[in-house]
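Schema walk-through. Below, the input block comes first and the output block second. Nothing else is stored per chain. Lengths vary across the set, and this one has 279 residues.
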Amino acid sequence: MEKPPAELFMIGLKKGMFDETFFNTGCNCFCFKKNESDKSSKLTGINPVLRTFFYSNYEFDKKRFAKIKKKNGGYIKTKKRKVELNSIQSLDNYEINIGKKTSGKVRGALVHEQFKLISDFNSFDAFFSVYNYLDNFTMMGIKWLQKKQLFPLKSELAISDLNLNIGTAVDMVASDSAKNLVIIEWKTGNPDTFKYYSGRMENEMKTHFNNSPYSQAILQLLMTYQILVKNYFLPIKKCYIVHISEEKIEEYSPTNEMLEFSNLLYGILKKHLDFSKKK
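--- output ---
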């Protein structure tokens, strides 16, 4: 009897199925290295490639979101939220000022780091036996995983597609109750900004998507899905974008039609990249 997808994934992970792709902190990019004796080759990140061809014209309206609305009326310019992690980690004591340009990146980095630790520990109980603090956003994400009966298998999984010369990381690969594979992209920030758009996307995506962080996240997820299917032959059962904010957690899952569209998206992106090489 064939093993379920989640078990096969873990076997492949232990055998080094994904070891050829890695993030190189020296050049701050993803790299591919077939054998230990080979020279590593640099890969382009998936987001810069998608941005170049489909949403280079995106503009964030700073004035519209410069203030955060209070529940009891009125506005505040900043809201501080202190986060802590044991000193063994590089993310120790941050003061996050919501509204500052870098705050979203810092908060997102913390949440991603904590989810990575949870996956590495292979259980929530093992994590809490060492760490006694979780950021509120991470806790919201854990409750969502438990509600959906999803168990983290691997976070920040580096993957690549040499046909496109692209490298990226899957935020989380999880297993459902039937041991099927599920991929999750975590997003954090003000809920009002996620679907706020400035016009339409560019080129072939113009007829399909508004130009918003939500649409950009969908394209990222669809391309991640295609890379996993085409290069690693993983049978992905479900895909999620999970957006966590101070107020709520929202999930978005591409329809089967959108997953089928991802194959077309892959071909369109390859056409653009091939054309760029000829210039």
